[in-house]
Protein 1
Amino acid sequence: MSEHEHAGRCACGAVRFRLIGETTDVIACHCETCRRWSGYFWAATHAGRDALVVEADDTLAWWPSSDIAERGFCSHCGSSLFYRRYDADRVSVAPGALATPTHLTTAAHICVAEAGDYYALEPGTARLAGPDMSS
């Protein structure tokens, strides 16, 4: 965990936010839904819901991607920004939306049993075949 204030935004800048407080290192998800939603695999840092302060959200839209979670994105440029489970007190945030340096590292890969056949996972990083529902 690291404690920082991170500024973030979508590609076009219409959605702007801050993460204030502790964040986790990055978890990369390789499930089919994440791959289809992001175009590759989706990675996120996690923070408490109250740590996310949205400063501009005119184009922020939420898609109920399953019975347990929704995904936030910019309806103007299409940037994939957030994932939040309905039953959790945290939000997942795409690290690519954060201003650098983030001081984050990739800690693990989840749902690797569903990983695409067009990329390789870096060696030495933890891997789980299925979802890690605690993150």
Protein 2
Amino acid sequence: MNLYLLLKTLHIVSSVVLVGTGFGSAFYLFMTNRSGSVAAQAVVSRLVVKADWWMTTPAVIVQPLSGIALAHLAGWPLTTPWIALALGMYVLAGLCWLPVVALQLRMARIADTAARRGQTLLPAAYWRMARWWEGLGYPAFAAMVVVFWLMVFKPPLWG
């Protein structure tokens, strides 16, 4: 069995899990936040947190490990421009994602408490966090799109 192709498959599948789960979770929480249903927000925000722990987090770990291994096996130094930029974009996405995880945890607790109390509206604190959550999601997703582009095209860029 070819180690490079095995790692490449793992890298591609984990990238799909990472971006797909992130985008899917974001879509459902974004839409649920506009539904006006506190009960739905409690359920969806709790499931988004689970998706991040069960799927996104392992993929976040696998991506750089498999990517660095692939670069090594292919003989590309990590200073190769498209690899260096991809790593930078990955770090940018991660710097956005880490606070998003914290926000999701707090939002889920707030929504759960409100749902258990039978409240029909969420407090202003939830909506402040939701705005930050959404605002951080856009650059994280854009950074990952750039990473995909770099991985596919491997442009010379500089140097």
Protein 3
Amino acid sequence: MRTKRFLAALLTAVTLSATAGAHTPGETVTPNFSHAIPNIPGKSLVAVEVTYPPGSASAPHTHAKSAFIYAYVVSGAIESQVDDGPARVYHAGESFYEAPGARHRISRNASATAPAKLLAVFVVDSGDTPLTTPHE
């Protein structure tokens, strides 16, 4: 029962972070999957889809302190810069990761004419919310 309450709270936190300014208008963040990892006590797997209309971008942000993120470009092209690494454009079928505590400086649709979609998969401490915190 605690796992179900946690998962409901986690999905609510993802949804609230998406609507509370963590992402710019026009970008859509949709919960995709959430489940406690049974053989790693205290850890959960959470996936969200981030859909970018043409020219849309996320505000610079960090994620929950415990979050390791695997990001997979489902369609289109996404420009990303994590910490002080180089900005890079990832195309459909390519992926990247963010280590716990990383600052995601750039996350945007690389196209001004075509939409793009990203699947972000978090391995995170159960209860570590919010998943996304915007920065100036």
